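pinned: reference chain
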Amino acid sequence: MSRRLANWIDAYLDYSGHSEAPEIFHFWTAVSVLAGALRRRVWIEQAYFQWTPNHYIIFVAPPGIVSKSTTASIGMKLLRQNQDIKFGPDSVTWQALTEGLAASAEEVLIGQEFIPMSCLTIVSSEFGTFLDPHDRAMVDVLVSLWDGQIGVWERKTKTQGSDIIVNPWLNILACTTPKWIAGNFPDYMIGGGFTSRCVFVYGDTKRQLVAYPALSIPRNFHAREQDLVHDLELISQLAGPMTLSQSAIEWGTQWYAQHYHETTNMPLEESKWGGYWARKQTHIHKLAMILSAAESDTLIIDRHHLADAAAIVTKLEEFLPRIFELVGQTPDARISETVRELVASHYAIDKAALFKMLVKTFSPKEVEDALASSIRAGLIGLRQMNGRTLVVDLEKELYDAAARSQGAGAKPMSISE
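pinned: its structure tokens
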């Protein structure tokens, strides 16, 4: 059989393009789906170690804004139609995770040799139910599994003995909010072993408003879904080492030298993000494997795959400080974030109504101080309308004003009572 689609990711973005979530969320869903299909059957050999295509992708957005869980499920529904793919539970202890990996063991014929491996994909709609950041044992297990180490991996429990797993492999797609990260991630974890291995994807604005998605999908929607499932099946059968073309090696060598030359001018705070900076090369090559598999069966990574992967990964860095800005900060800062999230979810809200929503959690003075600090920061503003004071998300107000000036037909802001 041959593929029906020129590029699986492009086709998936078209298929998912009628939802409200930002395209970046759908792109990284596609990455996680392809990683789950490829499993540990493909890799980049580096003699001392191997790069494998698994990712720990974390969607971060205020609740109710970009439909994180729904976005993830759109892609994973396609992957679940492949009976060979093993999924782990979305809420586990490290012991249960280890047992799940052991149960997924299989031997894959690659070339003339059967290679044992244990591969799981986990989709968690609430990251907090999957990971307790204070559980050092669980964090250590996740750190160890991300590297896709070669050989035997063993974990002992006090009551159940040992689970011995050969070539374990774990792929994660999870969803959470900035507030959960702020309240649950210890400061020492930021940029450390676990977070430096994660891909954090941030969004706080809907791409479009779609009241009834079923009315907006094209006639070929279901046919495109079948094409995606068909090609995903073929991609899941790829096996063997991925090779870098000579042009990719030249580009990657130049990038690597420049990357470490720029370490002294790192755009992120070194004390927090030094670990991520050191692993950025790995993130890029993991993604390049996905980009290559999305468009062909050649198992060749070319220059454009690496260059595109580097640009995509670098783009995410813009949002890292915003995602973790509240970790280690004062309760006042977290109250301000709560106020901003609430205003953003309503776009514009009556000030009195805002106080009513928050009065059971915070004092009126705390809310007033949070409003004042957010106004000074230029994140929200006050507007007078029909004798009422409205609290407005300035970013969305500016966006709609620009859209109207360009004739995009943006509607006036909505007002929540």
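why pinned: Confidence is low (pLDDT under 50) at residues 408-417. DSSP finds 16 helices and 16 strands in the chain.
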